Amino acid sequence: MSAELPDERLAELKIAFASIDTDGDGYISEAELKRHFPDLPAEALGAMSQEADSDQDGRYSFEEFVRTVS
Ligand SMILES: [Ca+2]
Ligand SMILES: [Ca+2]
């Protein structure tokens, strides 16, 4: 993991990640993101996925999530 974050911040992020990752597979899909943020416009999602999904596999790993929000 590249980002150096304090443990408590990391713990917070893990909880946030787990609450979005509703099927618990360790990845946040776009569908899960939409379910969690139903008001988010499609353009914002698109911009976010381009920026955040650094390995372009169409889903967010915890590492990508941490990089995005920190
Ligand atoms: Ca998931
Ligand atoms: Ca990814």
From TrEMBL:
Domain of life: Bacteria
One of the Pfam families matching this protein, by short name: EF-hand_7
Domain EF-hand: 8-43
PROSITE patterns in UniProt: EF_HAND_1, EF_HAND_2
GO molecular function, one term: calcium ion binding
Protein name as annotated: Ca2+-binding EF-hand superfamily protein
